[in-house]
Design goal:
The structure is a homodimer of 196-residue chains.
Chain A lengths: L14 H8 L8 H17 L7 E6 L4 E7 L2 H4 L6 H13 L12 E7 L3 H10 L3 E6 L1 H6 L11 H7 L3 E3 L4 H13 L11
Parallel strand pairs in A: 3-4, 4-5
Antiparallel strand pairs in A: 1-2, 1-3
Chain lengths: 196, 196
């Protein structure tokens, strides 16, 4: 992993996540290896008590190098934007030094997330320049433990496809969902919108 | 305005915006006064060359005090999340010291934005705790100068209402749209998704 991290990175990762990311020197050639890595991030975020049960990472698609990681940091940063995907995307942009991870003449990038993006993270994906997304658990799995995932367009996968972003769902879904259930069993904080 | 700003604020505002925000000692009792303030933020962001033609602010609804401001900072922060609404919401959360601007036993808050929220900012609103949103220009006005606003659910206003968030649109729309047109005439950078 590129260890350069700008001091301007909007979301400060916990030390364990920085250390874990810096220690990844292997390439992540299979989809499953990338997904299991972000599920481990989600799980460690729960066991370390540093945030909600969600992990994400950005990989460079030419060599499948890890570029940046993210975990849910809503409570620690006091910022409701700090979902795992938003943290990973922002840190990846700081690492490469560009707001567009899909800029011409640069390697393409993939976002891997332990749970399907919520309405905000879905909306953030096209602006980030990401070219593909791998999802573990479904939004319904997060909603089953009480999180509100927001209202995305029903055809959100097709909407991303129309913007040249491919989405793969249900990768290691059982393992990803187990982290959500573990969080629930530990009595972790669940937050979301207020209802009518 | 409360001048306390945490050093942990994820998006660093330009100095002119910090100074402008700190100099607002009056209350913003009318919707139009709040909207004209964010249109001025958008316009100044263009004339100062500090970002795109979008401004936003968060007001506390009991006394209509200004809590935090935001302008588009995508290029300067190298972060595609840094839309005016996201910046204003994050800075408001840092100012009050909570990720939930709608927490029980605290004053309610309003987001005012010079242009209707894009898909990402729409998705961020329920998580922020905001209870009402005022919009100036329409998404179609931003799209008319080349910005992609993303795909929100067609019934996005009703979706927010179901989460107890009211939306008022088309407030000072002409004045808000004029800033977009000024930006286009100056040849400002327009970015968004990749298509087809």
């Amino acid at each position: 992993m590129t260890t350069r991290r700008s001091s301007a990175s909007p979301f400060q990762l916990p030390q364990w996540a920085i250390r874990l990311a810096r220690s990844q020197h292997s390439l992540f050639l299979s989809k499953e290896s990338r997904m299991r890595f972000v599920i481990a991030l989600a799980s460690t975020n729960v066991t370390r008590g540093t945030g909600g049960p969600f992990g994400a990472a950005v990989f460079e698609r030419t060599g499948w190098r890890l570029i940046a990681v993210g975990v849910n940091l809503v409570e620690s940063t006091r910022c409701s934007h700090a979902h795992a995907e938003m943290v990973a995307l922002a840190n990846a942009q700081q690492t490469v030094g560009r707001f567009d991870l899909g800029a011409a003449n640069f390697p393409a990038h993939e976002l891997v997330t332990s749970c399907e993006p919520c309405a905000m993270c879905y909306g953030a994906i096209p602006w980030s320049g990401i070219r593909s997304v791998l999802c573990g658990a479904r939004a319904s799995d997060a909603e089953a433990i009480g999180f509100d995932e927001g209202a995305k367009p029903k055809n959100w996968v097709a909407e991303l496809k129309s913007r040249r972003i491919t989405v793969t769902r249900d990768l290691c879904r059982k393992e990803a969902t187990a982290v959500l259930q573990e969080y629930q069993q530990r009595g972790g904080a669940v937050y979301g919108a207020r209802w009518g």
